TrEMBL record:
Transmembrane segments: none annotated. This is CobF: precorrin-6A synthase (Deacetylating). Pfam families: TP_methylase (PF00590). Keywords: Cobalamin biosynthesis, Methyltransferase, S-adenosyl-L-methionine, Transferase. One of its GO terms (molecular function) is precorrin-6A synthase (deacetylating) activity. It comes from the Bacteria. InterPro entries: 4pyrrol_Mease (IPR000878), 4pyrrol_Methylase_sf (IPR035996), 4pyrrole_Mease_sub1 (IPR014777), 4pyrrole_Mease_sub2 (IPR014776), CobF (IPR012797). Residues 5-223 form the Tetrapyrrole methylase domain. Pathway: Cofactor biosynthesis; adenosylcobalamin biosynthesis. GO terms for biological process: cobalamin biosynthetic process; methylation. It comes from Tepidimonas thermarum.
């Protein structure tokens, strides 16, 4: 079986977030894979399906939802659990492709944000390449960090200064990264900024970035932390899901 897989960045899920290159790749596909992550996150699958309805000509491709496997508990063996989870997803991709496109062909997958930044699609594709003859094309999308800084109208970095990009898990387990003044945090469902001493920290937080119901809050961490927690919980209850990210920066008295 020969498969050409297009991983297409879709930003936060707004049709305008997909580039013309991404739209062309989607419209070349014979099969579009749509992951379904259970009833609690059904809206995530529905957003992808709505994008397909808006951007695909009728009858252009088979749109195939598939159930995502549940990742096992990972308190002790996080990397091992993720590795086994990726294996299971690759097998489901293969089974779904074989069922709908047994002769091979062009397959597309819409990826939140950009496939190159804190997303597992490329790692799963590497597993698929061990089982079929696969070529992979990545179509870049709008990253959460681009959407966040645009929403707050701020640059990502200070003049001649680096930025460290990390995850909520790393922030919880290791604290503030040594030597960093600016930290961008992704994949943080537990609001790990709560674990930091807030003095001298400023936060720029955003959820549903680029969407009509976008939320943005910024200010000294000590002053806005509770507001972020409250607004985040209310938004998640309203929509059934939430995707958010934030930038933390050490500030001096002159900057506050």
């Amino acid at each position: 079986m020969k498969i050409h897989l297009s991983l297409i960045g879709m930003g936060a899920g707004h049709p305008d977030h997909i580039t013309r290159q991404g739209m062309a790749a989607l419209q070349r596909a014979q099969l579009v894979l749509v992951p379904h992550k259970g009833a609690e996150k059904a809206d995530l699958a529905e957003l992808r399906l709505e994008l397909c309805r808006q951007l695909l000509p009728p009858g252009n491709a088979v749109v195939a939802p598939f159930d995502m496997p549940v990742r096992e508990g990972a308190d002790i063996d996080y990397l091992g659990a993720v590795d086994r989870w990726h294996d299971a997803i690759a097998q489901i991709w293969l089974d779904t492709i074989a069922r709908h496109l047994p002769g091979g062909g062009a397959v597309a997958l819409l990826v939140w944000g950009d496939p190159s930044l804190y997303d597992s699609s490329l790692r799963i594709a590497q597993r698929l390449a061990q089982r079929v003859q696969l070529t992979t094309t990545v179509v870049p999308g709008i990253t959460a960090l681009q959407a966040l800084t645009a929403a707050h109208a701020i640059p990502l970095n200070d003049l001649n200064a680096p930025v460290l990009i990390t995850t909520g898990r790393q922030l919880r387990e290791r604290g503030w990264p040594a030597g960093a003044d600016t930290v961008a945090v992704l994949l943080d469902g537990q609001c790990s900024f709560q674990t930091l001493a807030p003095e001298g920290l400023h936060i720029w937080w955003g959820a549903f970035l680029g969407m009509p119901h976008q939320l943005c809050i910024s200010g000294p961490l000590a002053a806005v932390s509770e507001t972020i927690l409250r607004e985040r919980a209310q938004a998640r209850a309203r929509h059934g899901w939430i995707m958010d990210t934030y930038l933390l920066k050490r500030v001096t008295d002159d900057e506050t």
